[in-house]
Design goal:
Strand content: 5-15%
Distance between the termini: 40 Å
Number of strands: 11
Shape: elongated
Structural class: alpha+beta
Number of domains: 4
Helix content: 40-55%
Strand order of the largest sheet: 1-2-3-4-6-5
CATH architecture of the largest domain: Orthogonal Bundle
Oligomer: single chain
Number of helices: 20
CATH superfamily of the largest domain: Transferase(Phosphotransferase) domain 1
Radius of gyration: 31 Å
CATH class of the largest domain: Mainly Alpha
Length: 547
């Protein structure tokens, strides 16, 4: 800028710069190129203009072919293209945007001095990035720069251009594993061979004191020969760097591939077994075409990661061999102690599978199967246990008193019908009718409880606790409207019960039912309010993470 003195009276130059800035802010790359071509005098202000570009909305750089460019989301900061449609960035000529994440953007580029193709990764909004963003970006570069493995994308150099932080990596010509899986599940042997290679690379990471923490199909690149390469170390944890501490309670990673201890934000519990879980999640998706848990929002997915149990791969794809399923499910154990001890152990098991040798992991026993089944169907288990316990109490009471066989049979019949309907509703949940199944289940619970109270023929007393229990239990579905529906239905059913049994009103002060109804309504609010707050926080969490 020193060779171009500022001229305050040059109104024409100011107008051109204003027009250029307007084109930058509107994201009109064609207008920017036209202005540079028609008015080369403004190119003398390249330094200032390039700084403006770093704050501008992202525009595609150069010609983008479907094979080269993967889908991206909106973001900020990219060097502006010249008249040829390409951008100069220091010693690099940026050819095309190859990918984008939450923190960085990656370009396919030509390194001019060595005339070679590389991948250039930049931090998004570098001049606006927080110190923590810059630290994490530099941590990623440090984590990878010292690694030398044939299946890990290597880093060449780290630097800045006009305040824009970047580092260069090997460019892998091909596609990501996520892109490859869009065509559907892989053959078992192909999936096992791919994950075996990834597991060996991850074991090398662990031997260097690094846990990746974000292993997922989009972070595995495949070359033309389908050889996998591990990349994207933005969340890597360096155990040998005591100065880099992850804040306890911070949830970092991708929910569908995140280990339970990572989902809980337990930084101290992160270990190589955390990556073992992610290896199992990737194997699951390669075998079934979907990750172990994928709900309608990241928040719901996290809840499933913490509490749920994935459907067995063989139920989603009958071609999955039992041995490979055992390997996958062992990786996905909730407790780190029950998983494979290392990525090397996972690789060894996959090698045994490919050689058709016996595995070290044993078939699951009855106890473990029951535990997994109960986690997959917690609502059915809870209802079944409650109904069976109630039936046992009723049966014992009848055996002791021996009174009113007809009433006893009616009560047992309602309990049996209730249990059968619970199985039907669970099938609806598993069969893709989740919301309808939940509302039908809640309706049945309230209606059949009311029927039991109506035929009891005795003062209701403590039996009315069933209504509050149903309202509280509806909160376990984590759906505010369902809680409100259950509360309103319980209030209406209680009112109907009092109308059908006037003896209840005559046996107690008139204000008692009003107090009970008010408590029931307050309970519905108390259960629903925190769920609503968590839902709001979940939506904010979704927006912060981005697509």
């Amino acid at each position: 800028m020193a060779d171009v003195p500022w001229q305050p009276d040059d109104q024409r130059l100011c107008e051109l710069l204003d027009a250029y800035l307007a084109a930058v802010q509107s994201g009109d790359s064609a207008a920017r190129i036209d202005l540079l071509a028609a008015h080369p005098e403004i190119s003398s202000w390249a330094g200032s203009l390039e700084t403006i570009h770093l704050l501008a909305p992202q525009q595609p750089v150069g010609p983008v072919s479907p094979a080269d460019k993967k889908p991206i989301s909106g973001g900020q900061s990219s060097p502006a293209p010249d008249a040829s449609g390409r951008a100069e960035f220091g010693n690099f000529e940026l050819l095309v945007e190859a990918g984008r994440g939450r923190m960085g953007v990656v370009y396919k580029a030509r390194q001019k001095d060595l005339d070679r193709t590389v991948a250039v990764k930049m931090i998004l909004s570098s001049r606006l990035a927080s110190p923590d963003d810059v630290r994490r970006f530099q941590q990623e570069a440090r984590a990878v720069a010292r690694l030398r493995h044939p299946n890990i994308v290597g880093v060449h150099e780290v630097g800045q251009v006009l305040g824009q932080h970047y580092f260069t990596m090997d460019f892998i010509a091909g596609r990501s594993l996520a892109k490859a899986l869009e065509a559907g599940p892989w053959e078992p042997d192909r999936a096992a061979q791919c994950l075996l290679t990834v597991a060996r690379a991850v074991d090398y990471l662990h031997s260097q004191g690094i846990v990746h923490r974000d292993l997922k199909p989009s972070n595995i690149l495949l070359d033309e020969r389908d050889q996998p390469f591990v990349t994207d170390f933005g969340l890597a944890k360096l155990f040998q760097d005591d100065g880099e501490k992850t804040q306890t309670g911070a949830i970092l990673g991708t929910p569908s591939y995140m280990a339970p201890e990572q989902a809980r934000g337990e930084a101290a519990a992160i270990s190589p077994r955390t990556d073992v879980y992610s290896l199992g999640a990737m194997l699951y998706e390669m075998l079934t075409g979907r990750p172990p848990f994928r709900e309608d929002s990241p928040l719901n997915t996290l809840l499933q990661v913490l509490e749920g149990e994935p459907t067995l791969p063989s139920r989603l794809n009958r071609r999955v061999p039992p041995e490979l399923q055992r390997i996958c499910m062992c990786c996905l154990e909730k407790s780190p102690a029950n998983r494979y001890s290392s990525a090397a152990a996972v690789g060894d098991e996959l090698a045994r599978f490919l050689r058709r040798e016996p595995l070290e992991v044993q078939p699951t026993g009855i106890r473990q199967r029951l535990r997994r089944w109960s986690r997959r169907q917690p609502a059915l288990v809870a209802h079944g246990a409650g109904l069976l316990l109630t039936a046992l109490i009723v049966q014992v009471k009848f055996m002791i008193s021996g009174e009113d066989l007809k009433l006893h049979l009616e009560v047992m019949g309602i309990l049996g019908l209730w249990l059968i309907l619970c199985c039907v509703f669970q099938a609806m949940l598993d069969g893709g009718w989740a919301m309808l199944g939940r509302y039908a289940w809640a309706t049945t619970n309230v209606v059949l409880l009311t029927a039991l109270l109506y035929i009891s023929g005795r003062p209701l007393g403590p039996l009315l606790i069933g209504y509050p229990l149903l309202v509280a239990a509806s909160g376990l579905w984590f759906h505010v409207r369902l809680v409100g529906f259950t509360t309103a239905l319980s209030l209406a059913s209680y009112a109907g019960l009092l109308w059908l049994r006037p003896d209840e009103l005559q046996a107690q002060p008139i204000h008692y039912p009003l107090i009970f109804a008010a408590v029931l309504a307050v309970l519905g609010f108390v259960v629903g309010y925190p769920i609503r707050r968590l839902r709001v926080l979940g939506r904010y969490f979704d927006r912060q993470r981005g697509p």
